[in-house]
Amino acid sequence: MGRTLVFPFSLIILALTWASFIPQIKHVWQTKDSRGISTAYLLFNLLCITEHGFFQSLDTACLWNISKFPSSPFSVYPLDWANLAQVLGDWVLSNVLFLLCLYYSPPTRPHRHRLRILLILALYSFFLLFTLVPLILDLTTDVFCPPNNPHDCPLPERDVVPFLRGIHCFFLLPITTVILPVLGFYKQAQRQRRQRKQGQPRRQHHQEPREQAIMIPPSHPPSPTTPTDLNRLLARSRLFQAAIFALSAILWIFRLPPGQQERAYDPPPPPDEPLPPQPWLLVFLHWWIFMGYMTVDEVIFAVGQGVLGYLGLRKAIAAEGRSEGEEEAERRVLLVAAEERSTYGSES
């Protein structure tokens, strides 16, 4: 599938992925409460999308820098800018959702709550010091240029570029894009299941319908307000986001054609040199490190959001069924009470 055919689909997916964050941000903003949202789930997914932004920005910057040479066979296509725009847009919207949930998180103990928020922000800031902060300094200043060419040196000649890419490829990429997101989804699913068990109505024991009718007054006060269950509100938007990111994961296979990323760093082999066969595991790891991490990570995100959306939707359906059953039971109890009063009046 050529770039010309993929480009319009990429623009559609770009708009849909941005739009999939809006309902979640809107619900948190309107309810002013992020109860039920795991901080680990938010932080680990934000670290993952920050890693995506680092790699996409670095790859696009290197291609752009190399394409300036007169004899360079490389060029930055509109599809490359669309890829970068989607990743950076997802990063910005994920930051907005992350900060809103931190700001509106319910404080149980004020001092521990502030300390916890400061610790989370410190961890995120520390991660930025190894990803986007040095990359921005590299792109805007000449502080990392070698001594023999201290001004306006090409980006691949700067020592920090291959060093940072090597550190992220072989050490941080498996942790931040696979292990941490899976752990974050597990923590969020665990919290939702715990909330579901806590929200189940307790059974009433040792009360006959006649006694219940006598105990219920004609006009009982309304029940106290309960906090909004944000996971129930976000269930459908999470399912929508899961479907969009699943389509985006499939499209990333065609948006990053084989050999595009490594050509910017490794010279091509001589034409007459035969390539030895590689084990399939090494081939997969090479594909995942240089190109396939976006596909694998968005599949993980789509599956995780789909599971969370399913859990929230199941809880919403169960809550609707319980509310209808409680209304029907209350109507039956009021009818029994009315019959008791009419019987008592006729006997008098």
UniProtKB/TrEMBL annotation:
| Region forming the signal peptide | 1-19
Subcellular compartments:
Membrane
| Basic residues composition-biased segments | 191-205
Keywords, A to Z? Answer: Membrane, Signal, Transmembrane, Transmembrane helix
Naming one, the record's GO cellular component terms include: membrane
* Repeat among keywords: no
Keyword Transmembrane appears in the UniProt entry = yes
In terms of superkingdom, the source organism counts as Eukaryota
Q: Membrane topology for this entry?
A: Multi-pass membrane protein
The record's annotation in InterPro entries points to: PQ-loop_rpt (IPR006603)
Q: Where are the transmembrane segments?
A: 84-105, 117-137, 163-186, 239-257
Q: Where is this region: Disordered?
A: 191-228
Q: What is this protein called?
A: Uncharacterized protein
- In which organism is this protein found? Aspergillus kawachii
Classification from the root reads: Eukaryota, Fungi, Dikarya, Ascomycota, Pezizomycotina
